[in-house]
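ok so I'm stuck.
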Amino acid sequence: MQKKINIILTGGHAATTAIATIQETKEKYPDWNLYWVGVKPVIGAKFISITTGKLQRRFTKYTIPSLFKISVGIFQAFFIILKIRPKIVVSFGGYAALPVCIAAYIFRIPIIIHEQTTGAGLTNKIVGKFANKILIARAESERYFAKEKTVLVGNPIRKEILSIKPKTKLSKTPTIYITGGSSGSVPMNKVIDKVLPELQKKYRIIHQTGKIDFQYFKQRAPENYQVFDFIEMDDIPGIFERADFVISRAGANTVA
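replied:
not stuck anymore, here's the structure
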């Protein structure tokens, strides 16, 4: 009997990229067991929670507690890897991925990392030094990693978004989707605030503000206007399908 193949995926963000990767993997290799180790679950993989801290670029009052949490995370990751015995670990960066990748390296389990942005996150810079393969979404990221193990692959896209049919004409009342990313964009919101009365006369507006400005815009609630602090991953394909225009702060996954 062929031994089951277990794969660990991990990351502190990049849920859209991870979901797209999980979808494709499950389609091509339905017998593989996929696990997501992190602080929040991701659709399509068995979720295992891990406790860890964020890396600090400078010393603050949070540095010591954060280092302690990272140590706890590495300890937890040891037992997770011993239990699952993955064939490979795939990391999408972010603070939750560091303990998992360190534990995988100690057990000599191959590591692949994926960098979504034109820069490189701190975790990916660290893990990139001992990862077996580094996948990048944009050529500009190559300068942060060893060339001999870096491959330009782009950003995986969810099937639900790829299947949206192109617009051939504007809707009778066009819809504008405004997004500042998962955390929102205060500068963008300030600009939208000034022009909102004019926009709502001609357009339907879906506005994802982030938590900081959500209550302010919620109280305004003009006609033809929907406001959200955060939009769940499952709802994004439907919003893209409705939208005639998108105004975005140019996050990596939104651009892709």
